[in-house]
Amino acid sequence: MKTASVMNVSTQTTDNDAPTWFDSLPKVRGRYRVNAPLDQSSWFRVGGPAEALFKPEDVEDLQVFLKNCPSDIPVTVLGVASNCIIRDGGIRGVVIRLGRTFASIQIDENNPEQIIAGAAALDANVARFAQENGLTGLEFYSGIPGTIGGALRMNAGCYGIETSNVCLSARAIDRQGNLHNLTTDEMSMSYRHSDVPEDWIFVDAIFQAQPGDKSEIQNRMEEIKSQREGSQPIRERTGGSTFANPERDTPGAGSAWKAIDAAGCRGLEVGGAQMSEKHCNFMINTGTATADNLETLGETVRRRVKENSGIDLRWEIKRIGEAVKDK
Q1: Does 241 participate in catalysis according to the annotation?
Q2: Is 33 a catalytic residue?
C-alpha cells in the first residue's frame, strides 16, 4: 500500500500520488494529504484511501476551504467512522476530518446548565464532562460510539433518549462556506435521521443538562456500560447497530434484531464478515473482512428478512466511497 503524502499547504507542492485536480484546491491553514489511508481509522478496519484528506485548522479555515473548493470536486466529511463502511475503492475527492480544535467541550459561560461541544468531540467524552461538572441528562452518550457530529446527523440515541431530546441548537457550514445556526426544530430530527442537507458540516452544538449528583450520574453511566457489555459485541470490530428498527406502523414491526433472528441470520457469514452471535443486529469483522464482504452480508440479511417477514430493513450504518471494480 502506498503511504500517504503530506502536502505543504503554503506552497501546495504535489507529487506523483496527487490527483490531477489537487492544484485547484484553495490555500488553507490546515493540512492536506494525498492517498491517505482510512482503513485503520474505521471501526470496521476496512476501506480504501481518500484521494485527498483535509484537516482544517478551525471553523474559519473550513469555511475558506468550502467557499473556494471547486464545486465539481466531491467533498465528504468523516468523523471517527464508528457507524460507517468505507468501501474498498476508497473515497473520491476530498475527505474532511475535523481535528482537535473541533473537539472542545465546555460549559456555556451564559448558562451553567448548558454544554457546548465540538462536532469532533467523542460522545462518551461529552457524557464524562457532564458528570465531572455535576450535570445530568447526557449519560446516554456514554453508550454511543462516535462523535457529536455523527450524533447530530443521525439523531443518535439509546435507552429511550435521543439527541433531539437534549440538543438546543447546532452550527453547520454549507458547501458554499456559509455558517448556519440551527435550532433543533429547524433540524427536523426524527428516528435516526435529521433533515439537515447531507453536504452541510456540523461544527458544534449546545446541549441542555440539569444539575445532578456526581455519584448518581456515574452510577448511571456504569449501568449503561454494563448493559452494553452484556448485550453487544463492543470489543469486536463493529459499527454499532446495522439496521434501524422498523417504523412503528410497519406490519410486524418490532426490533430489527428480532426480524433478523427470525430470518435465521444470527451468525450468518460472508467472507470475514459476520452477524454477531451475541447481538444479531451488529455486524462484525472477524479479522479478514473486506468492505464488500460487510456490505454483501448486510444486503443478504435485508433480502432474507424481506422474504421471511415482508419487512424492509433500513441501513443505519452509512456506506460511503467506491466499490472495487472487476473483483
Answers
A1: yes
A2: no
